[in-house]
Amino acid sequence: MFVCICHGVTDRDIRNAAADGVCSLDGLGEELKVGTCCGRCSDCASQILHETAAAGVEIPQPVVAIA
Ligand code: FES
Fold first, then answer.
1. Ligand 1 pocket, residue 57 CB under 6 Å
2. Are the beta carbons of 42 and 25 closer than 8 angstroms?
3. Which of 23, 55, 12 is nearest to 4 (CA)?
4. Does any domain span residue 64?
5. Which of 7, 27, 29, 51 could form a disulfide with 22 if both were Cys (CB 3.0 to 4.6 A apart)?
6. Is 49 a domain residue?
7. pLDDT 10s per residue in the chain (67 long)?
8. Domain containing 16 — which CATH number?
């Protein structure tokens, strides 16, 4: 199913990105451009990220740099 019509991104693309380490909506924006045009896909994309995590796909936490 298409989630982001503006950029032609599917739920499968989002699940694959999550499996490859994308762990936030910002990350999806950087990787797939999800949510970077009209933004209407943001809620659905976030839900798919959370579902992917709940299904047992390990999503790494963001790395925080300490200066
Ligand atoms: S539908 Fe994803 S940015 Fe417009």
1. no
2. yes
3. 12
4. no
5. 27
6. yes
7. 999 999 999 999 999 999 898 989 999 999 999 999 999 999 999 999 989 878 876 655 555 667 6
8. 1.10.10.1100
